[in-house]
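Self-study notes.
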Amino acid sequence: MGTYSSATRSLRNGSLTIKDGSGTPKTVVDPCMDGDLTWTIANNNTVDYCRGVATGWRKGNKEPCKISFTLKMASLLGKTANSADPYTAYEILTNQGSAFTTTVAGAGGVYALDLVFTLASPDSANDYDETVTFEDMVIDSCVQVEGDPNTIKVDGRCLAEKPTVARA
C-alpha cells in the first residue's frame, strides 16, 4: 500500500465502473466523464425544544447519500443491439432489454446498481489508487443531452449514508 501524497488529483485520474447484481457482475467502465461526480452526505439533525426554546440537538432519520455525474456518450446501444459489442453506459443505467440484475434483493421491483469511482494516483513515487464505492444506487433521473459532445446526466441515491472509501 502506498503512502500519503499531496499531489492533487484531476480529471485525468478518475474513471467510473458501473456494476449490476449478477453473480459475475456485468460492468461498464467509463473513463470519459465530465469530471463532475458529486455526492452529498446529509446530516439530518433536529432541534430539541422545551416550551418553544431550542435546548439541544439530536440525530434525525438517516438520509441516503445523493449522487450526480455526467458521462460522455459514445453510443446508446451496444450489446443489446449486437452481441459482439460491449455493453454501454446507457444500457446498464436504463436496464435496456432487461439484460441486467438489480443489486438489491427483494427491492420491490426497484432497479439498483453499484458504482465504483477509481482515482488513480497522480504521483508515481507514491503509487496507490483510491476507490469510492456507492452500493445499491437507484437512479432518480437519467437525462440524455445532445451537444458537443452528447452526454448522459445521472442523479441517484444509495441506501448508505455515505460511500465506502478505500486506498488500494
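Second protein, same conventions, sequence then structure:
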Amino acid sequence: MERARYYCGNVRNGCEYSDVDFGARQDSVEKMKQGQFIPPNVDVGDMFVATLLYLNSLEQLGNLFYSLEGTNNGISDVLAHAQNIGLVHFDDDNSINALKRLRHALAHNYGLVSIPTNHSKDKIYYKYILTNNQDSHKVIEMPKREWNSDYSIKTKRSSVIIHFYPLVNLIENVFKNAQKEYLNGTILCAMNKDELETKYTITIQ
C-alpha cells in the first residue's frame, strides 16, 4: 500500500484522493519549479503501477481476512463484503469479476486485456481503459457491447472503463474499514504469526 500511495501521491491514507494529489506526487511540483520537465509517459506509468499495487494489496487483504470457501480469490471476496455492508455499489453483477481479472491482466500480462484460458471459470473477454477522469464517481463502467477479442475494435462501448481516482478511494476505504473490523474482532487473519513472517518478511543485509 505504501508503494501504491507513493506512485500516485496519495499520502493522506484513506481521505478522498484527487488529481491534485497525483499532480504533486513524488515532489513533482518542486521538480517543475527547478525547471525539470516531467514527460506524460511518466504519468501513465505511475498510474499503471499504482493501479497494480492497489489491486495486489486488495487481493492480499481479501485472502488474509475475507477468504470464502470455494472462491480462491481475495478481490472477489473482499469486494463482495464491501458491497454487502454498503461501502460500494456495483451496477453490474460482473463488475467484481472484471476488477479481479484486471489485476491478473496487469500482474501477469503487463497490459489491459484479459483473455480467458481453458481453466477460467468464466469465458468473458475484457479489454480495459484506465482513465483519470476526475468528474466520475463510478469505480467501473462495464461495456455496452461484449468484446469478442478482435483487437481492431477500439470503441469505448466494448471496453471496461476503470476510473482511477474512485478506485483508489474505494480501496483505501476498504482498508480503513478492515482495520476497524479487525480491532472490533469481527474478522480474523487466516494465517498465524509464524506463517505471516515466513511468507512476507524481507531481510535486508
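Instructor comment on the second fold: The chain has eight helices and four strands.
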